[in-house]
UniProtKB/TrEMBL annotation, chains A, B:
Keywords: Lipid biosynthesis, Lipid metabolism, Membrane, Phospholipid biosynthesis, Phospholipid metabolism, Transferase, Transmembrane, Transmembrane helix
Name under which the protein is recorded: CDP-diacylglycerol--serine O-phosphatidyltransferase
InterPro entries: CDP-alcohol_PTase-I (IPR050324), CDP-diaglyc--ser_O-PTrfase (IPR004533), CDP-OH_P_trans (IPR000462), CDP-OH_PTrfase_TM_dom (IPR043130), CDP_ALCOHOL_P_TRANSF_CS (IPR048254)
Cellular compartment(s): Endomembrane system
Gene name of the record: pssA
Family that this chain belongs to: Belongs to the CDP-alcohol phosphatidyltransferase class-I family.
Length: 179, 179
């Protein structure tokens, strides 16, 4: 009896850890992406942000599938998202698109990360009613990373505008049904 | 009557914004610290991490004093702390102490940030009983930044050890009464 209960407990623990491990994989990819930008490997950094997005897509799905959604998992997810889709794409854009305007560029990326943090904090305290309010930071980060491929052919003005628009959209009240 | 109520509402809103503005100042200092390391201004970066710690010390105090503590404020605070005392000191140590061992250094700082995120997520879901469990990420970040001043005279082994110890202490169950 004790053995069965103990095995059941271990199974539940392993299932919970499975989803949280994917979340930790997401932030690890985000940290690697940041360091790769710092070391000048822009393209590899872009790849790691996409890998982070890939793990982020599956951690929530896995938690729901295994029925192990938890408050801790939700909190961890938001913290990791800020790193992988807030800090990492911001530094990527800063080092690629804004390197000729370092001070104005700093203002743009600071506002972007600030809006991302506000969006995540708001999301964590709101009851989820099947829709997002404001675009998720994951989407904003992926869009910014996608556009970083076009730095050689697009103007710095364009990157200023897209960073500002994504910042505003994150803290806006636009209702986006969850897919 | 309407005017008085409206003014009262505006006052409450302004008070809430005062504490949250200090939290946003904390993350802004953290972002500036990160960019300064990336640009090679290590010493100025150290200063900005201490400025972030200074704002962090006062946002909670201000919220309690003005009686405007909120779930949103708590969430925002954790997100900002991960940037200013997780990412910023980690990149600072990476660029100063670990620049000769970039790959092993990446493992050390990734574990440090992961442990910081776990510590914050755990803190957010636990009822506060007057004490912290595990050292706060703010303390870990300040200690790491403090030791970064000694990079020229201390060995890389020391920095590996201090980063690992701080990581373990953050996710430990050591009970630290709040001062």
């Amino acid at each position: 009896m004790f053995l069965i209960r103990s095995m059941e407990h271990t199974k539940v623990k392993m299932r919970t850890h499975a989803a949280n491990s994917l979340t930790l994989l997401n932030i690890s990819f985000g940290i690697i992406a940041i360091i790769l930008v710092v070391r000048g490997y822009t393209h590899t950094s872009q790849l790691f942000i996409f890998l982070a997005a890939f793990s982020d897509r599956f951690d929530g799905m896995l938690a729901r599938k295994l029925n192990t959604e938890s408050d801790f998992g939700k909190q961890l997810d938001s913290l990791c998202d800020l790193v992988s889709f807030g800090i990492a794409p911001a530094i990527l854009i800063y080092q690629t698109a804004f390197h000729n305007i370092p001070d104005i560029g700093l203002v743009f990326i600071t506002v972007y990360i600030l809006c991302g943090a506000i969006r995540l904090a708001r999301f964590n305290v709101k009851e989820f009613d099947g829709a997002f309010y404001g675009i998720p930071i994951t989407a904003a980060g992926i869009i910014l990373t996608f556009f970083s491929f076009f730095v050689p052919i697009l103007s710095v003005l364009f990157f200023g505008m897209i960073t500002a628009i994504l910042s505003i959209l994150m803290v806006s009240n636009i209702r986006i049904p969850k897919m």
